[in-house]
Please model this.
Amino acid sequence: MLEDRFINIGDANIHYIEAGEGKPVLLFHGARFNCRTFDETGTIEAIASANFHAISVDFPGFGKSSNMNISLSEFINTFVDAMKLENTVILAASMGGEAVVGFAVNHPEKVQALILTGAVGVSEYENKLSNIGDKPMLLMWGKNDLVSPVNNYQLLIKYNKNAEFYNVGRQHACYLDDNNSFNSHISDFLLKLGK
Model:
């Protein structure tokens, strides 16, 4: 089991787990999950095996992280700064995907690439999506995702013509349906980035 790690941000104790060495890949979970979900699916191991440094984070108020009175997008910005990360790859699911899109469109200089699965609320940021139109982007959605409709990934593709899109599994949390395909697409994407 990966060791619990904590960083103090303001008055909050933020929990994360990590594995691997190399460029950082931040992982942010959805509303029903926590940072260990991506360990259980083998995603952290896949990222570490691709020679990247996987850092899976519990959002404030989730898992073992204490609450913070800021938006999740602003939390991501604060976490990136506190960890002194630069040019980061970020993987996020559902609620986490919305938070990451909100962070990325406002701080594109801090983002190298995005991996989004079942991201919700993308239309909230449509007027700024062109800010991440040049970022390498991998999009994965379950074939029968009832939580994040197709217009979310279609909007991302509209503003990022080079985005890679795959249907993986069937449900919203597609990484639970078919973690092998999910992790394989991530590994391939990261290997291309690393070249």
User: Anything to note?
Assistant: The radius of gyration is 15 Å.
